[in-house]
Amino acid sequence: MKRYAKRNTFFTAALFCLVMVFLAGCSGFHPVGPKRAKTSNFLRKVERNCGRYRVGGYTVTSMFSMNTSEPLFISWTSALGAGDISKKKYAETINSFFQNSDNEAAIRCIVRQKGPGGK
Predict the structure, then answer these.
(1) Boundaries of every domain in the chain
(2) CB-based contact 54:101 (threshold 8 Å)
(3) Model-level pTM?
């Protein structure tokens, strides 16, 4: 009888742990590592300092805040902030994707937020 009680307790604990892991994953809680925090700070800096400039006919602020925001713009800007792509590659990518607009002022501002040196 004790054998079944121990097994039952084990399965109850295991089930509880699985439920907690599932709920933590669904809650939107994600640990922020140093690289991710750095990227988040960079994106806030870009929005604050370059929000009025236009990329693809939209302001940088609207690119971050629209329900239909351009995920590629955010991904590329995040990659720039994390140091995953160079400033030159960022400018080339933005200009190739948003071809029918003048993006230069926005790109210069965004790249300038990265600071001197680096990629």
Answers:
(1) 1-30, 34-113
(2) yes
(3) 0.65
